[in-house]
Amino acid sequence: MLGKNTHFKIKIINLIMIAAILYIYNINLDLWETKESLQAEQKMAELATEKLTELETGLDSMLAEYTTQNQETEEALETYLWQDGTYEGTGTGFAGELTVSVTIEKGTITDIQLVDSGNDDAAYVDMAVGVIDKMLAAQTWEVDAVSGATFSSNGIKDAVAEALSLAENP
Question: Domain segments of the chain: what residues?
Answer without folding.
Answer: 1-79, 85-167
